[in-house]
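ok posting inputs for the adenosine-5'-diphosphate job
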Amino acid sequence: MDKLKKINRLAIANRGEVAVRIIKACEELGIETVLLHSEADILSRAYRMATKRICIGGAPVAQSYLNITANVQGAIAGGADAIHPGFGFLSENADFAEAVIKAGLIFVGPSAEAIRALGDKINCKKLAEKAGLPLVPGYKGEDQSLTRLISEAEKIGYPVIVKAAAGGGGRGMKLIKNSAEAKELIESAQRESLSAFGSSQVFLEKYLDRAKHIEFQIFGDSSGRVVHFFDRECSVQRRHQKIIEEAVSAALTPELRQQMGESAVAIATLGKYKGAGTVEFLLQDGKFYLLEVNTRLQVEHPVTEMVLGVDLVKAQILTAQGDFLFSAPSFSPRGHAIEGRVYAENSYQGGIPSTGLLGHVFFPEGPGRRFEYGFEAGDEITSFYDPMIAKVIVWDESRSRAIQKMIKVLQDSVIFGVHTNIPYLIEILKHPEFINGTMTTRFIENNFAEGLKAAKPSELEQSLIESARRGGPAVTLSSSRSPESAVSPWNRPWRLL
Ligand code: ADP
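and the output
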């Protein structure tokens, strides 16, 4: 059992909606907050909500959000006694967790040892192998010579995935379809890995071409007891990045759920896990394979919170204080929750990022609806960071009702000033393969490879455009508008400010 150590002021080494999420949990717990932010994040909701703000560096992430010293010093300068890393950035960096502890602060997350054991993809696979967990067939050896890697890829049989050992977020990952591509793609993965993660070590996996992504939320309390909070399905992915997530998966039988849940708890227990983490699996033809463990809060944690009635961020903070024990003998999910990630991007132009000042922002509140956002009217979406600007989460009694609710909620949500992927999310939710729950991780590639196609403007809209072109009656349409912007309010390039 950990020693009790009350947190009075928590520093947040993050930005955007997750920073807001952490501030809200702190407000409820009576904890003050210090936002450790970059120069580019003054116009943001978290900046306005935090008790204190400390600018830790310039806009580029290397100068601020990825700078360990700047974050630790910022927390100390702000009088914090703990740091929450959120997700992304330094959240899975064992050196950061260690530096925080060395500075006499509490790290809201697992120990540096647990991060090294489970967060490192190769260490995690080795531990999983010992525990007898099923792994995707592959090569994770020390010999990193090109000849060896190519011969291992041949042995596994194409298609093969090459992945950065230290990677994440889909970076440093390449799909090799045949031997002709092997050399170039392995070298490119090594280069990308070195520049993004400081290590060129890679490993190989057989590519599972009709798999579902299923993950289990795990949690280790202050006594060291690890439980799982059931599963999420995140098969809707673009370039290996999740877009829509659900809890729980419609694809699991009770037996599979039990086996996968037990495997997730087994690996987390072996890694002496404390706090919130996620064990990711691929599921294909009724068989599951461990993919990796994420040693942090996950972007999609709200769907688990909605079906289980738990608060994972509060539980994380209480665990870090040595103050959290599971009281319920067991948990069981109720109803169905779906999350859609709202990105500032133009879905009609292959998803290119969209930046600028936000105009009107409106989310239609209602029962079973939750909006996690970091930016409001007047705030700026810059090109420095991930383009995710909000998450829309819904809960309903059944999956079909949750889908119906999500479509309506997205249709009624308004974000002006930047393009968003809201129309794209709506089309995905309406797709028969999504509705019947059979989608695999190749769903987007197979159905929406190029994003959305522009629909033709209606006759009225066409006549307004032509009238505007002729200098006719005043219509407030920008002359640079693309044809699709005439049909969707989400895609209008004019600004309401
Ligand atoms: P990252 O840590 O970069 O997110 P992951 O290993 O978690 O990488 O994989 C991300 C996604 O890439 C998975 O959800 C899946 O869609 C795809 N993927 C990864 N490994 C495989 C594999 N062996 N076969 C098929 N798809 C895979």
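notes: Residues 474-497 have pLDDT under 50 and may be disordered. The pocket of adenosine-5'-diphosphate is lined by residues 136, 161, 163, 167-170, 173, 205-208, 211, 213, 237, 240, 280, 282, 291-292, 441 (CB under 6 Å).
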